[in-house]
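hey can u check if this looks right to u? its 208 residues, i copy pasted from the old doc so theres a chance i mangled smth
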Amino acid sequence: MSEEQIPNGFKMTEIGVLPADWAVESLRNTAKISSGGSAPQGGEYFNGKNPFIRVQHIEPDSDRITKWDLITNEAVKKYKLKLFPKETIVFPKSGASIYLEKRAKLPVDAFIVSHLCAVLSDNQKALQNFLFYALKYIKFSKEKADGYPTLNLSEIKKVRVPLPPLPEQQKIISVFSTIQEAKEKTDNVIKALKELKKSMMKHLFTYG
């Protein structure tokens, strides 16, 4: 697109045309980027009280985490695990799960496996929930070859993200949250209808 084709109030950036008052920053300048630790090995380290989240705990059909392992204090100490706060954004950074492009937020303070990247905004330039929605539209896997892909933290830190002014970020969060809630309600209705149909078919074949 040439300069003459850019609408008034917009500008050309390295990631495309954006509103004139939006900025573009690398992820490293908007959030802390890190990863988890080694998964505890051995039954003696489980059935504790500390949430430990793995890649498979991100639900396949949504961006939610509703289940996790519970590890002991001894596991935390032995494996030198770091506690991440609730709402930290997590996504796979190694293995075939990268291709699923899943994003999720921690539902509780938790320890996480090393295969997960953790993103925590400082809320100075980017609100945490805005980063969550922005990262959902960034495809980390598109340049990864088949096989066992890996995302290095250095790669992730270089990713460029659009940054509206904070009040506008909040408005965008509200819109996306409303859409997400509507989608979840629709999904729940569809699930209920499928269960009803299954129940009716079972009744017909049993008593019909």
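The mean pLDDT is 90.
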